[in-house]
Amino acid sequence: MGSRYTENDDRWYHGDSPSLDEPYDSHRTAGGEPLGAHMARDGDGCLEAGSDDDDGDGDDGEIDQASADVGATQKKRRKRNKKQSKKKSKANSPLQQSSPPRVPLEHIFPSGKYPECEAQEYQATARTTAAEARYDGRRYWEDDTFLNNYRKAAEVHRQTRRWVQETAKPGTTLQDIAVGIEDSVRALLDNAGLEPGDSLKSGMGFPTGLCLNNQVAHYTPNPGQKPVVLQQQDVLTVDFGVHINGWIVDSAFTMAFDPTYDNLLAAVKDATNTGIKTAGIDVRISDVSAAIQEVMESYEVEIGGKTYRVKPVRSLSGHNIQQYHIHGGKSIPFVKHRDQTKMEEGEVFAIETFGSTGRGYTVDDVGVYGYGLNDDAPLRAPVSLSSAKRLHKTIRENFGTLVFCRRYLERLGVDNYLAGMNCLIQNGVVEEYGPLMDIKGSYSAQFEHTFLLRETHKEIFSRGDDY
Q: What whole-number distance in Å separates Cα of residue 261 and Cα of residue 267?
């Protein structure tokens, strides 16, 4: 590695530079002898202390004069170097304002940047505790990591559902479809979710929903059930979520193998897209609901020679999403209402619409869809049953407030959990969710997208070339 050479260096010696503040040492040998020292030697280079030179003409005075000249030269150079260093320090130091002030600010702040002034927070008022406080709580959307994770989860959803659309055919069991979806999501995320805490980092946002015909929502095949085989005349709705760090992409679509139901699917897809188009910052949710209802009820479908108007399902709604909470507190019904709640910047919404040829109301179906910890559940479950305590610990470590199903528990190796689960449900620690259906003989469809209300536009995370 070579030494850096600077043109301003005025080096009359070689080697390490002595400090300008320390006295000159004429006995330094590293890097050569001082200028003029050779004059203290006789002609053959040998020192002869206390003797005359060969000529005997008294050259000692000349030697003393030479040494004096050397010392004077060194003093001049030290003074000159000190002056130069003072000039450099003055040039590098910022200018100070004169008194009275006459130096232009551009000279004192050459960068053009002036010091930040004092910042004081607003005192708590109705304005700051409501709208501004909510906005500050949603500044996460400005984080590139948040956006990138949401986009990644959306891509996982698109690639997984593409596989479903290609492989879900008559003769396939719903169990195989559900397991295939969940295995695909975990593989694409590179997270098997088998260790405590892994499923909280990324994975399924909620149990895969696979609903047929009059089943409107929240049906999933459970272990031990009789296999349900997909038929040619079935209308299949697929609803699943992908999460990364608790932020869920919630998206759903409906498939039919008979063109008879095309208009039903078109009505619901159009209604969902209308809701998304209407949504925006400061838009009243009631306006979004009215637009959805108007579009959906404009469609009719003919089934078996009878014409049905497509009805919005009144007992279900879209919703906003919060971290680790699929339902964030705001609801978007599919029919007109008087709620004046507005959408706000930074909120994540899942606009989903359900259309039915039946009554447009749902009732509970038999079976269990899934479970979820109540938000206000204590860290220690107030139960005495040991199996319930162990199950509660497993739920907290693997799912938190995310909804899960029996398939997920058994995948972790949990067995004999039903008694403990019932105990947790009875004590209000866990909530149970069941399937929902319309009247028998009716058909329903669902389409859903997740989007973020950004400052200048909506970003529809789950949009793909399929819907």
A: 10
Residue ranges covered by each domain of the chain: 142-367+438-460, 370-433
Domain 142-367+438-460 falls under CATH 3.90.230.10: yes
Residue 325 counted as an annotated binding residue: no
Output the six-digit token pair for 311.
């009805």
Angstrom distance (rounded) from CA 254 to CA 199: 27
Interatomic CA distance for residues 151 and 144, integer angstroms: 11
Distance CA 70, CA 34 (A): 8
Is 352 known as a binding-site position? yes
Report CA Rg, the chain: 40
CA–CA gap between residue 63 and residue 378 (Å, rounded): 97
CA pair distance 229, 215, nearest whole angstrom: 15
Angle at the Cα of 350 from the Cα atoms of 128 and 356, rounded to 5 degrees = 135
Residue 448 is labelled as binding a ligand: yes
pLDDT tens-digit readout, 356-403:
999 999 999 999 999 999 988 888 888 989 999 999 999 999 999 999
Task: For 370-433, give the CATH class.
Answer: mainly alpha
Summarised one tens digit per residue, pLDDT across range 165-205 is 999 999 999 999 999 999 999 999 999 999 999 999 999 99
Helix/strand/coil for 453? strand
Q: Where are the beta strands (DSSP E) in 170-316?
A: 202-212, 215-217, 235-244, 247-256, 300-303, 306-309, 311-312
Between strands 300-303 and 444-453, the pairing is unpaired
Residue 218 known to bind ligand: yes
Whether the upstream peptide bond of residue 259 has omega within 30° of 0, thus cis, is: no
Query: What pTM does this model have?
Result: 0.73
Ramachandran area for residue 107 (φ above 0: left; ψ -120 to 50: alpha; else beta): alpha
Tell me if 243 is assigned to a ligand binding site: no
Joined tokens for residue 282? 């400061």
